[in-house]
Amino acid sequence: MRRNSGRSSVWNFLRVTAVVFAASSLLLVASDNAPERVPSYVSWSQETLAAASAGDAFRGMLLAKRCDHCHGSEGFSATGSTPNLADMDELAIWKELEDFRSHKRISRAMEPIAESLSSRDVADVVAYYSKLPVYTDPQDNRNFPGSRPGPGHAAIASHLVAFGDGERGIPPCQSCHGPVAYRPGVPSLMTQNSEYVLSQLEAFANRSRANDINMPMRTISTLLTEDERHALAEYYGSGLGLQPGSSR
Fold first, then answer.
1. Are residues 161 and 227 in the same domain?
2. pLDDT value of residue 8
């Protein structure tokens, strides 16, 4: 059902997201002494949306064989630090691959792989991963789901997911990532490894990752405490993202 929302809703969401975080982003930029840096060369236009959505999933399956070692043959990694890609929205994967290709997202492993792909290859690979099911398969060796967080961390995370923290300017996680940890155009967290979620929150907080357009993740991750980042990683990594507001 979620896939029938149409690309127009994705386009509207992306524009709204830019407005929502503009004020907080400007404040953070003003206090940052580092040189101005373009976060991503991806520009969300109708042409871009069309190009990212025009992939051939069958051809992508063949290309993705080289990705199985890290991301798993079913799109679920056996290593907690490696992201799961099964059922990830194609626009979200496409942007990350484009950022790896242009060195806007840094990874010694992913940059050379992304650079070796043509524009058509990228579209085909993301079409394949976006169509993979998330249910368990006897042949996969997934790390997900991880252990459930303790009551304290579950309560902290569920509050941030559902309500955020208005006093600190932190919006609810579900306002961007969706009420069940999924929203078109945004990285899915509903079946993501906790170790990977934590590493990305920390990377955004310390600015070693800076490819978020309008700086929403750098802004929010910086405002979160270390304990809150751990709580959110455990929450999503255990699959609780499918039960928003749950603290048990």
1. yes
2. 56
37 belongs to a structural domain: no
pTM: 0.84
Strand partners, 165: 170
Task: Tell which of 143, 164, 181 closes a domain.
Answer: 143
Q: Is residue 149 part of a domain?
A: yes
Q: How far is CA 169 from CA 24, 35, 125, 164, in A?
A: 8, 25, 37, 8
Q: 96: Cβ–Cβ under 8 A, 6 or more apart, which residues?
A: 105, 187, 211
Q: How far apart are CA 75 and CA 67, in angstroms?
A: 9
- Final residue belonging to a domain, choices 128, 143, 158: 143
206 Cβ neighbours under 8 A, 6+ residues apart: none
Residue 246 belongs to domain with CATH number = 1.10.760.10
Each residue of 90-147: pLDDT tens digit? 999 999 999 999 999 999 999 999 999 999 999 999 999 999 999 988 878 999 999 9
Full domain range(s) for residue 136: 44-143
Task: For residues 142 and 193, give the distance between their C-alpha atoms in angstroms, rounded to a whole number.
Answer: 9
Q: How many domains are there within the chain?
A: 2
CA 75 to chain centre: 15
Asked if the structure places residue 100 within a domain, the reply is yes
Sign (positive or negative) of CA dihedral 153, 155, 159, 164 = negative
